[in-house]
Design a protein that fits this description.
Length: about 230
């Protein structure tokens, strides 16, 4: 009898621990999504001001924006890791999303370093590294979209489309930097402008998706356990 009691108690503690870890993971994913949005907006404003004014102020904003994006992606990666640890069973899609987040963070960090090089005067080297960083970011967002496709729900489509937009926008950025390297400044700046705002739109969709999907899940759990929100 006592053995059975302790077994059931251990199961209960494991369930509570897993639930707490899951809640923490979800909070980190939402927080990371907001940082991602703030970062993409900052970067886009930087590109816009650089396109219009043509000063280092825009580049500094772009650099800071990418640093914020890298931080947001890193937070989301940690959140996904906690979700993986809290779940039992098939979670390969979460691993794919987590990997994509880390790759995106690496791409954003590369963009930050590249832009700092441009500010310091190493224009060509910075533009080459920026092109590489944008491609890395695009690959990471594609991984996230691939992983999200395996999840269920209407809001998942927003998350998938949001990551696809970020992947497309980052690739446009990469092409824009290649154009700058080839001395085609007008086309390059226009591509960077367009690509940066495409990523903002993608980030907005991701915030909508993760925030509402987690809130919906919490309401479902509350109803299941006898609590009906007002």
């Amino acid at each position: 009898m006592s053995i059975k009691f302790y077994t059931e108690y251990d199961k209960y503690l494991h369930t509570i621990g897993g639930e707490n870890m899951r809640n923490t993971g979800e909070e980190l994913i939402i927080t990371g999504a907001w940082f991602l949005l703030f970062g993409t907006v900052t970067s886009a404003v930087g590109v816009t001001s650089k396109h219009i004014i043509g000063t280092n102020f825009g580049k500094k904003l772009f650099s800071k924006g990418n640093a914020i994006e890298a931080f947001g992606n890193s937070i989301q990666s940690v959140g996904r890791e906690k979700l993986i640890k809290s779940e039992i069973g098939h979670n390969d899609h979460l691993l794919t999303i987590m990997l994509g987040s880390w790759i995106q963070a690496a791409g954003n960090a590369t963009n930050t370093l590249a832009t700092e090089l441009e500010i310091s005067g190493s224009i060509d080297q910075g533009e080459k590294l920026n092109a590489l960083g944008s491609v890395i970011q695009s690959i990471g967002a594609s991984f996230e979209a691939k992983g999200a496709r395996q999840e269920e729900g209407v809001l998942v489509k927003f998350e998938v489309f949001g990551n696809e937009l970020i992947a497309i926008g980052a690739m446009i950025d990469g092409i824009g930097n290649v154009a700058l390297l080839n001395q085609n400044d007008s086309v390059g700046e226009q591509l960077l402008f367009f690509g940066s705002w495409v990523q903002v739109l993608g980030s907005i969709l991701i915030v909508i998706a993760v925030t509402n999907s987690i809130e919906t899940e919490e309401e479902t759990k509350s109803t299941r356990y006898g609590y009906y929100p007002k």
